Amino acid sequence: MTAIAFIGLGNMGGPMAANLVKAGRHVTGFDLAAASIEAAKADGITIAKSAVEAVQGAGVVVTMLPAGKHVLAVWNEILPHVAKGALIIDCSTIDVESAVQAHALAAKCGAASIDAPVSGGTGGAKAATLTFMAGGSEAAFAAAKPVLEQMGKKIVHCGGAGAGQAAKICNNMILGISMIAVSEAFTLAEKLGLSHQALFDVASTSSGQCWSLTSYCPVPGPVPASPANNSYKPGFAAALMLKDLKLSQEAAKASGAATPLGAHAAEIYTAFEQAGHGGADFSGIINHLREQGRK
Ligand code: NAD
Questions:
Q1: Is the CB of 32 under 6 A from ligand 1?
Q2: Which residues belong to any copy of the 6-phosphogluconate dehydrogenase NADP-binding domain (predicted)?
Q3: Can you give the pLDDT at residue 156?
C-alpha cells in the first residue's frame, strides 16, 4: 500500500494517523511538539526529523494543522520535495481563501490535492468515525477516498477546490447559532417555571427539533451523553466553535453573503471566551446567557 506522510500529530492528527497504521499503512509523521511525537511513536508512527524528510517516498501526504497560515507554510516547504503525482490532503479547518491557495500551490508542483476538513471531534478521530467533507477534482477525490475511509465513516465530495472548507464553516455556523437558540429557549423556560424535561419532550418532537437539542442538549438530564452532564467538559471547545464562526464571518464578508445571526453568534462566543471559558464545551454558552439575564 502507498506510504503516507502525516504532518501535524496533535489531538486530531495523532489518532487519525494511528488509524492509518491500524489499517496496515506505513506512516511517517512529523510534528513540532515533543508530546505529540511521543504519543505518535507509541502508536506505531515512524517519526521524521522534518516535514521535508517525512514526505520522502510518500505517495500520499496528510496535513492536520491549526490554521491557514500553518498549512500554507508547510505546503510551501514540502511541495518541492513531494513525489511527482503524489496526493496532498489537508484535513485542517482553515479559511476558504487559504485552501484555494494551497490547491494552486500543489497544482504548480504537479501534485493532486484535496481539502478535507472533518466533523466528529477527537472521539471520532480515535474511533475512525469522522465525517470528511472534501473539495477538489473528481480524480483527486477518487484517489483520496480510500485513505479517508480508513479514518472516517462518511466521505462527501462537496465540489471543487475549497468546497470542503466551505461546507465545514456553513455547517458549524448552523451549529453555533442553533446551540445559542436552544440555550435561549431553556433559559426562558427556566424563568417561566417550565421544567427542562417538559421543554425537551415537546421541542424534541416538534418544530424546534434540531441536533443541538436532541443530541447535545445544553442542560443536564434529557440527553445523558451531552457535556452538560459532565460539567461542560469538551466535547467541542468553545474556542474551536469561535474559530469556525470567525472563519464563516470572514467568508461571508469576502463573498458578500448576509449572515446577521452568524455575526451575532460570533460576538456571543467572543464574550464567552473573553470571560475565560474558551476551554469549556461550546454548549456551556447557556451559563453565559443565564448570567446576562435579570436576577
Ligand atoms: P492541535 O493543536 O492538538 O494539533 C495541531 C498540531 O500541529 C500540534 O501538535 C502542533 O505542534 C502541530 N504543528 C503546528 N505547526 C506545525 C508545523 N509547522 N509542522 C508540524 N506540526 C505543526 O489541534 P487539533 O485539535 O488536532 O486540530 C487540528 C485541526 O483540526 C484544526 O484546524 C482544528 O480546527 C481542526 N478540528 C479540530 C477538532 C477538535 O475537536 N479538536 C474537530 C474538528 C476539526
A1: yes
A2: 4-159
A3: 98
